[in-house]
Amino acid sequence: MFPAPIDLDLRLVRCFVVVAEHRHFGRAAEALHTTQPSLSRQIRRLEQQLGVRLLDRTTRGTHLSGAGEVFLPLATGLLRAAGQAMAQTRAAARPREITIGYTRGLLITPAVRALRKAEPEAEVKTRLLAWNDSRSALLDHRVDAVVTRLPFATDQLQVTVLYDEPRVLVVPLDHPLVGRESVTLDDIAGEPIPHVRQSDPLLNAYWRVDPRPDGSPAPDGPLVDDLEDKHELIAAGAAVAIGPPLDYATGLHPGLTTIPLRDVEPSQVVLATRAGDRNRLVTAFRKHAEARLRTHQSHPARTSGVGSVRSSG
Q1: Reduced to 3 states, what is the DSSP secondary structure of residue 156?
Q2: 97: which strand partners?
Q3: Which of 40, 165, 228, 237 is deepest in the core (most CB within 10 A)?
Q4: H or E element in which residue 162 lies
Q5: DSSP one-letter code for 313
Q6: Rg of the Cα trace of the chain?
């Protein structure tokens, strides 16, 4: 027999997950486009439905209770399962649709145009993703393919490396190294490099080059909440960073410039899709991406099975 039905409102579950991610009601309310009093009421409603306290608010911030620690991964799974159910149901009704994701600074237009020309009856949509959202967007079925940068966990995904891309040093315009043709890690041995709060540890370590090739740790820098905060911090002269070769048109702060970094392995630009996805449009887009997005590659594209691509650096 099935257990008695429980009327669990997924909107309230999402509110809880966002608060748990931010550990702060104010920032969570901003992310959800609501007010703190309204968000507090929704959390209380969820706690009443479950019959437990999920969050403890103190003068030092918001923390998960013991029950909240147990509920958080379950809540995240509920939201993901609901998103997948909706996406797969819609896909069954509208098989002639594809959403292609990309991260800032990467050009997908030639491949998208080629797909639209080859598949004039298909609905081809594009979506800009946050720099650390590619894997989740695929597994949540918000996108069907994404052009992005490694590293990220590749299990459950099929990943095709399109080309290598150099890593650069990001500095304020008045930094003493500005004007150099290139720099090395030794040139910034004492420069603090920020940590992005709640970033994937793999990404954080990769873009900080931590540890350094000689085994020493990267110099510690301040904690920041997102990429824009990091750029503002660097522009103020409080840190430097290692990143992809963005320019002012693709998201670089106007107070910053970049210098080629010559003693680190390049990053890899990849096309990622869900492993085993049989959508014909995904296969077609992969063909166009390999043909049209590899103009700067330094090696032939290669396709991995599930989880077999390993990042450089």
Answers
A1: coil
A2: 123
A3: 165
A4: strand 157-165
A5: -
A6: 22
